[in-house]
Amino acid sequence: MSLLDIYLQKNEKKRYDVYKETGISQQMLSSVNKKNVSSYSVKTIQAIAKTVKKSEGTVLDELLRLENENAYFEVFNAEDLLLAFENKESYIVIKGEYKKEMEELAKSQLSETETLGLELGSAGLVTVFAEVIMQLVDLFINKNDDKRKIESQVRKYKFKKVNKNEILLYLRQLDY
């Protein structure tokens, strides 16, 4: 889970904003992003606090609360979704207007029953062949890079409608 990105997102900021505001390197922020809050340095907490305009204590409390909640990464547009894929988020919540676009993409996926039937009937080979075909199709279809990346990565996730305003994407491997 990318706790730092989720926290910054809730405060309408990004890692780049922390870098720009404080000069703390993006590489350091990227490595911190994969760690537990207890391993954040004081310098990192101070940089985050300065960026979100809160006290260090408040930031630490909020980060710890967020860590205990196991918060989901929230996505409102393609850029957020690509960031979630880059961070290898296990759970992603699609919200807002972008939900409609993702619903269209979800319609193109087979249901769980259909997928299971195909995999059992082909001894699992259909999954391998389907991925090869999809990679070949991606080479010849004229779509922008972001759309192609999203369609490629989203195949690793299952869709679940949470309510009329949200869709939850979760990694297929979490079902096993």
Describe this structure in words.
The protein has helices at residues 3-10, 15-22, 26-32, 42-52, 56-69, 78-86, 98-107, 112-121, 125-140, 145-154; strands spanning 73-75, 91-95, 157-163, 166-171. With 176 residues, the chain is an alpha+beta fold. The chain has two domains: 3-69, Orthogonal Bundle (434 Repressor (Amino-terminal Domain)); 73-175, no CATH class. The chain has a four-stranded mixed beta sheet with strand order 1-2-4-3. Strand 3 and strand 4 form a beta hairpin. Helix 2 packs across helix 4, helix 4 packs across helix 5 (56-69) and helix 6 (78-86) packs across helix 10 (145-154). The model has no long low-confidence stretch (mean pLDDT 80).
Describe the SSE topology.
Blueprint: H1 3-10, H2 15-22, H3 26-32, H4 42-52, H5 56-69, E1 73-75, H6 78-86, E2 91-95, H7 98-107, H8 112-121, H9 125-140, H10 145-154, E3 157-163, E4 166-171
Parallel strand pairs: 1-2
Antiparallel strand pairs: 2-4, 3-4
Helix pairs in contact: 2-4, 4-5, 6-10
Principal-axes geometry comes out as elongated
Tell me the span between the first and last alpha carbons. 19 Å
Which sequence of strands runs across the widest sheet?
Answer: 1-2-4-3
How many discrete structural domains?
A: 2
What ranges have pLDDT less than 50 throughout 5 or more consecutive residues?
none
What is the beta-strand fraction? 5-15%
Helix content: 55-70%
Number of helices: 10
Provide the succession of SSEs: HHHHHEHEHHHHEE
Number of beta strands: 4
The biggest beta sheet is recorded as:
4 strands, mixed
Radius of gyration, whole Å: 19 Å
Mean pLDDT: 80
Q: Decide which structural class fits the backbone.
A: alpha+beta
